[in-house]
Amino acid sequence: MYSLLIVDDEFYAVNGIKSGLDWSVMGFSAVYEAYDGAMAQEVIGNHTIDVMICDIEMPGSSGLELLEWINERGYPIETIFLTCHSNFSYAQKALQLGSLNYLVKPVDFIELESIVVKALNNVVREQEASHVQKEYHKYLELWEARRPLMLERFWQELLDHRSRPADGWIDRELAGYGTELTKESRVFPVLVSIERWHKEIDTRDEEIMEYALRSAAKEIILAERPGIVFQDREGMIVILAYGGGGERTIRQWIADCEAFVQACAEYFFSTVTCYLGKETEVRQLGAMYGALQYAEQNNVRRNRQIVCYVEDASGQAGVTDALPDFYEWAELLEPGRIEPLRERVRDFFVRLEREAGLTVATLHAFYHGMLQMVHYLLHKKRTAAPRLQGGQLLDKDAATRSILDLQAWAEQVLETYEEAIQSGQQDESPIDKAKRFIGEHLKEEVSREQIADHVFLNPGYLSRLFKKETGESLSDYILRERMALAQNALAYSDEPISKVARSLGYNSLSYFGKTFKRFHGMNPQDYRKSIDAGNGLLP
User: Which Gene Ontology molecular function entries are recorded, alphabetically (predicted)?
Assistant: First the structure.
């Protein structure tokens, strides 16, 4: 049941509203009265109030001042304002403060009832959100209490070995942890990339939510099967099913991953992509992990949320047999073994000529895979390739008109890459490029996907790389830069605060104020007053 507070300096107005509707039928178990702002504050301090109907014009403090007092103390009260005058400035101020509605006296009780029902619906939604918040704090406590396990450290060290580690080291480590695994044991790996969050969260909350996702992955994907879920050094979620997952097919793995993807969207405000590997021995896991990492970092089109390394017998689409293993090609190209790769490219096109049922989609897929591989290596080496990055080579449509055109294009790409490596021209890092792009678009609604497209990276990979190199999340950086811009505007211009907020893409003045206070320790109004007073807060 809910509680109602009626605030008006006129006794008859309060009684009229109190008796005008059957509040118990609407779900109110208590109806409180107050005849001025001070009395209302006392009632709110002593009782839980869900909905408040309040007159604006009262002696002493007005209804608007009362709502400001409520907002400052964080009381979750839905407010409906009443007034004798249809004054637009009052309505505007009421809406800015978060009032649900604004009614002119005398009150139409049918209209009032409709608005109160709407207010109760908002209260229900807030209570549901509070339940989610409690769940969040449960994960927070678990996260703070949990310490890294030594077994996780072993798996992390194993994955860091791109070359095959010594068999003796693997067996010694596994035996030391009391597991039944050996170097010949088979495991099935899944990598999970967090593509984006559906709501703005800061760096600390992001880490807590990542822990929640790992817990959900263990429950939904591993279920009761033996295995482990942990976060690698790049921020990816790694799932290893011991024993290779038993008799499970790729289709069954996909079904569990789809359930996990849906749960992430519904309960954890996130979009994720799962990269399914293939069953492999423990001693060969590093190479399989590297291949999945490469697939994630180059998945710039993001057109699927389940990406398979292989096909299963049922025909579930994975990496088509018509395409080369671009990760294997990258392993040749990275140390400069260009001639062996040229041989692989020529062999590939010989096979492609013999491919039955070849379609232009295969040519397009090769074009994107080759281009992504080269951008990936240029990024790793911090090397500039102006001809390639400036779009001077053939575009997709021209390069994929025929197999011969595509082969000529691929050889030109390798030649361009070789020239770039030999020139040694340093390129701007992806993080610096991202920062420059953000700085040029601070007054626009810029998405993480737009930034990632600008630097030719997968959004999830860009977010992890940004956090690793700067120590803060991409969203925190954007907010901090916007608030620095807002700080300058408030200090050095006479623009109204509402106009400053709108210029930075904030339609809600209240949300702008909360964000500004989070970064600068006071709301915009107080900050501007401190500047006017000559306190010199601006650095």
Answer: DNA-binding transcription factor activity; sequence-specific DNA binding
